[in-house]
Specification:
Elements: H1 2-18, E1 60-69, E2 72-75, E3 79-83, E4 86-87, H2 96-107, E5 111-116, E6 128-134, E7 137-138, H3 139-145, E8 150-151
Parallel strand pairs: 3-6
Antiparallel strand pairs: 1-2, 1-5, 2-3, 4-8, 5-6, 6-7
Length: 165
């Protein structure tokens, strides 16, 4: 009889403990994220900043470890990031290397800040859509101003790239 009560108590405790696990609702902190310092999946830093004339709202920051092309980079803790509102030439097109070289000089190996598009935060390729900031500079806007990119506005988006020109 005593064994029966002990077994019931153990079962109740097991059920109670298993219900005490937490589920993180932050999509950036999933099981593929580790806390390694230099790996592509390091946990990003979340900050909110507003500086000077570039009204930046940095939601996530991380180190850029790869430049894919003139409008796509890879960021630690975030993954692949597509510059929202702009389109640079594709491989083999005129201007491709110039745009990629500019983004490489601005981003590669540096901490970038991301203002993720709240209206649509991923594209059809599962890339994070964001404004990309380095040292307070909106690179999406700079790509347009320097002539390395064209406006590519695809609604819904919280950003209006036509206002950057």
């Amino acid at each position: 009889m005593r064994f029966k009560y002990l077994l019931i108590i153990i079962c109740i405790m097991a059920v109670a403990v298993s219900g005490c696990t937490s589920h993180d609702s932050n999509p950036l902190n999933n099981s593929s994220v580790s806390s390694s310092n230099s790996s592509p999946s390091a946990v990003p830093t979340t900050t909110t900043t507003s500086t000077g004339s570039s009204d930046q709202h940095v939601e996530v920051s991380g180190k850029c470890y790869k430049v894919v092309d003139g409008d796509t980079i890879d960021v630690e803790g975030v993954g692949r990031v597509r510059f929202v509102g702009v389109n640079t030439p594709e491989r083999g097109q005129a201007g491709y290397q110039t745009a990629k070289d500019y983004v490489t000089s601005m981003c590669l190996g540096k901490t970038v800040g991301l203002d993720i598009d709240n209206a649509k935060n991923k594209d059809k390729y599962d890339r994070t859509l964001a404004l990309v900031y380095v040292d307070g500079v909106n690179l999406n806007q700079e790509l347009l101003k320097k002539g390395y990119a064209e406006v590519m506005y695809i609604p819904p988006s919280e950003f209006n790239p036509y206002s950057w020109m």
